[in-house]
Target: Large ribosomal subunit protein uL29
Amino acid sequence: MAIGSKNLDAASLRDKTDEELTEELGKAKESLFNLRFQAATGQLESHGRLKAVRRDIARLYTIMRERELGIIPVVEPEAAPEKAAKGDAA
Model:
């Protein structure tokens, strides 16, 4: 993907849990707020970054909506590996 964050492509987002998607959405919204603030004060160096962050937010909302509608399966949170290892050793 040429525009946007490296770790926010659709394939990697589909592998994340709902909580992780919500966390990424919060980070992206905070980043967008900061970029808009920089643009308003004339300190923004890369105007393309605004477009990239808006696209990231739209991508996150799309993945969340697809799960809500049942278009793609919901990823279940993984069990803690240290708990499983302790249970096998005992």
User: Anything to note?
Assistant: Residues 18-41 form the longest helix (24 residues). The CA atoms of residues 3 and 42 lie 23 Å apart.
